[in-house]
Amino acid sequence: EEQPRNPWPGKCDGNPNFAIGRGKNTFTSGIEGPWTTHPFQWDNQFFTLLRDHAMDYELITGPGGAKYWINNGLMMLTTDLALYYDDEYRQIVLNFANNGHELDRHFAAAWEKLTTDGGEWAENKHCINAHDLDLDLDEMPIRKDYHNERGNE
Q1: 2, 91, 106, 123: which has the highest count of C-beta atoms within 10 A?
Q2: What CA–CA distances, in Å, run from 37 to 30, 43, 84, 97?
Q3: SS3 state at 120
Q4: Helix residue ranges per DSSP H, the chain
Q5: Rounded to the nearest 5°, which phi and psi values hold at 5?
Q6: Cβ atoms 26, 67 nearer than 8 A
Q7: Helices 45-53 and 87-98, interaxial angle, to 10°?
């Protein structure tokens, strides 16, 4: 039975002593897998995969119950493939697949606008110098020993 106001019944521990959504209580969307062969590397492979293999993806139901498309261990969502099948968006896909510098240029312009213009989001926009951030992982909210304390190796 669907419960729109309670989308994951019984999936999260309500115990306030433990972090919800962590450890044994982790729950995802059910979409599991990488879009590209090097997901932490910036490149235009997402677009080259669409250009070269959009018709090769097979619809599956993944282990988490979500439906998505897979080809040679890489995944796409229906919305990703729709970029190829739409005549206007296919031109953008082909442009970015054939010329990674165009992707870089358009992404840089969009990122610049997002991070400096503020848009409608905030009247008090400001930038933070990345060098001023304290990114010591030992001070992050999730302790390194969290999983061991919970018995999750």
Answers
A1: 106
A2: 20, 10, 19, 15
A3: coil
A4: 45-53, 78-85, 87-98, 100-116, 146-149
A5: -90, -5
A6: no
A7: 120
CA atoms of 91 and 99, how far apart (whole Å): 12
Residue whose entry in the numeric block shows the structure tokens 């240029």 = 105
Check residues 126 and 138 and name the one with the higher pLDDT.
126
Q: CA quadruple 91, 94, 97, 100: dihedral positive or negative?
A: negative
Q: What is the mean pLDDT of residues 77-95?
A: 96
pLDDT, tens digit, for every residue of 50-74? 999 999 999 999 887 889 999 999 9
pLDDT tens for each residue of 113-134:
887 765 566 666 666 666 676 6
